[in-house]
Amino acid sequence: MLRLEDVTKSFGGKPAVDGVSLVVPAGQMVGVIGRSGAGKSTLLRMINRLGDPTSGRILFGDTDVTALRGRPLRAWRARCAMIFQQFNLAGRLDVLTNVMMGRLSYVGTLSALLNLWSEHDRAVALSGLDQFDMASLAAQRADTLSGGQQQRVAIARALVQEPDMILADEPIASLDPRNTRMVMDALQRINKQFGITVICNLHSLDTARAYCDRLVGMAQGRVVFDDVPQALTDEVARGLYGLDAGEIMDTAGTALPAPATAYRPSFAVA
């Protein structure tokens, strides 16, 4: 179970994440929604410890994630895999090697630099690629793949880390509708088949409603919505996105007028 206790992250004295408290049970698929600048990416980066909270605590089970340093911190990042919008693949390396990079915590950096991968690691990486119908491209350079293919390679790399949790930061932001479905189907399959907790930042409300068990809405660094997808009505969505501006964009790209008074959910976290 992941627990965030009054987590705040400030830049230049201005909070990007402001007093967030959340409990995420193991095995949930959680969508984090909100406007750009709401604090979604900063929140995920703190969970992975790519950034440190200014205050508050992040705990996973009995482990105080915010207190980790050195080798325990590297072990945490292996357990808490991160998927990025821009894929973060080594373009000049082949697909299989990129996926095997997810095994670094098991083999060590020196072995990876010398390309001393074991047959077991190669088999695990090929199996990961096969999960996403990508095994046939194992020998191909990563920078020759389409965006959707590269994101599936990135997800396979995360999977072979054997993580307890996957954090996906806008994984479909640069993809077309077909590849969006393939990537979201892959994340949902990992969640349901392996019981891995998935926390995913998303802009598309339709995608969030369709794939996630739970939605967490953020505005101005705070959690202002936390409920099942069915509770995210159009009125609630207008309120969520209307906290900062007079209109929101629906999933088709059409501007929706905000109500005269922005809706503020009664269960908003203070």
Automatic annotation (TrEMBL):
Assigned keywords, A-Z: ATP-binding, Cell membrane, Membrane, Nucleotide-binding, Translocase, Transport
PROSITE patterns recorded: ABC_TRANSPORTER_1, ABC_TRANSPORTER_2
SMART domains membership: AAA
Source taxon at top rank: Bacteria
Domain ABC transporter span(s) in chain numbering: 2-245
GO MF, one annotated term: ATP binding
InterPro entries recorded: AAA+_ATPase, ABC_transporter-like_ATP-bd, ABC_transporter-like_CS, ABC_transpr_PhnC, MetN_ABC_transporter-like
Family, similarity comment: Belongs to the ABC transporter superfamily.
Protein name as it appears in the record: Phosphonate ABC transporter ATP-binding protein
